[in-house]
Design brief:
The protein is an alpha+beta fold and 114 residues long. The protein contains five helices and five strands; from the N terminus they run ααββββαβαα.
């Protein structure tokens, strides 16, 4: 049987990138990170917040996500993840910083709907 060498099966290859992204996190990502404390390389992406058991990815989107290029990239990324059975929740940085409890409520509801 041939061995599959896809990035999805070699998550360690993205570990340095994941560490760099954590060091360069926005205030909202740091706040969400403190609440969720998860990160996971998956295929060509590093999921900022991911619960493998629930197959739930949570994204905190800064300004770069609200451009035509950002929307397109996010759409491709979301389709990629959904095709692999992962649900994606997106919140703006502003939502996370100003209304973290509501963000947590949405995440808890998503986890409760399993």
């Amino acid at each position: 049987m041939a061995q599959n060498n896809s990035r999805e099966e070699r998550p360690g290859s993205l570990a340095p990138r994941a560490r760099r992204l954590r060091r360069q996190a926005t205030a909202a990502e740091r706040a969400l990170w403190r609440l969720l404390r998860r990160q996971h390389p998956f295929g060509p992406y590093v999921l900022a917040f991911f619960c493998m058991g629930s197959k739930l990815a949570v994204e905190a989107d800064g300004g770069q996500h609200y451009t035509a290029q950002g929307w397109e990239h996010d759409e491709v990324r979301t389709r990629y993840l959904q095709h692999r059975g992962i649900r994606v929740l997106r919140f703006s940085d502003r939502e996370v910083v100003l209304n973290g409890e509501a963000v947590l409520a949405v995440i808890e509801a998503a986890l409760g709907s399993l």
